[in-house]
Design goal:
Blueprint (H helix, E strand, L loop, with lengths): L1 H4 L6 H24 L2 E2 L11 E13 L6 H4 L5 E8 L2 E8 L11 E9 L3 E4 L8 E6 L4 E6 L3 H21 L1
Parallel strand pairs: 1-5
Antiparallel strand pairs: 2-3, 2-8, 3-4, 4-5, 6-7, 7-8
Protein name: PH domain-containing protein
GO molecular function: guanyl-nucleotide exchange factor activity
Keywords: Guanine-nucleotide releasing factor, Phosphoprotein
Length: 172
């Protein structure tokens, strides 16, 4: 509110910095709340690096090997997954539905799968839906078609994944 009613130049730079700092802090706390709700992951989440993004997606799973073609498995009902993007991995979890008072405020996640970023590739455009992209593993043995809730979320995730992959390439 202060920023909205301030004239440009009257400390607005400091107000913007303060707002950005507070929003970063809130995001960090929110991400931590989701992260501690992950059950079933064997290993240390800290070894995956900093959590960059997390959110809910529709996901289809396919394999390049064998007779299954992309169009054959893309028709089936998607899995609802909560994805966590870390510096070193992307984790797929299933949001558990809890009952009782306040259950919807505190989500719980069952760990399903984790892909190391060093072996991940992406395909940014999937024919038929501009909200979809692919995350594939290894030599495309496993392909995850991921549908974001909207195009902005897709673009944000692609930007962050590209950034991680670029940093990896530079290190090599």
């Amino acid at each position: 509110e202060l920023l909205k009613y301030s004239k440009e130049g009257e400390g607005t730079t400091q107000l913007k910095e303060a707002l950005d700092t507070m929003l970063d802090l809130l995001k960090s706390v929110n991400d931590s709340m989701h992260q501690i709700a992950i059950n079933g992951y064997i290993g240390n989440l800290n070894e995956l690096g900093k959590m960059i993004l997390q959110g809910a997606f529709s996901v289809w799973l396919g394999h390049r090997k064998g007779a299954t073609k992309m169009k054959d498995f893309a028709r089936f009902k998607p899995m609802q997954r909560h994805l966590f993007l870390y510096e070193k991995a992307v984790m797929f979890c299933k949001r558990r539905v809890e009952s009782g008072e306040g259950a919807d405020r505190y989500p719980s996640y069952s760990f399903k799968h984790c892909l190391k970023m060093e072996e991940v590739g992406i395909t940014e455009h999937v024919k038929g839906d501009n909200r979809k992209f692919e995350i594939w593993y290894g030599e495309k043995e496993e392909i995850y078609i991921v549908q974001a809730p909207n195009i902005d979320v897709k673009m944000l995730w692609l930007k962050e994944i590209r950034s991680i992959l670029l940093k990896q390439q530079e290190r090599l």
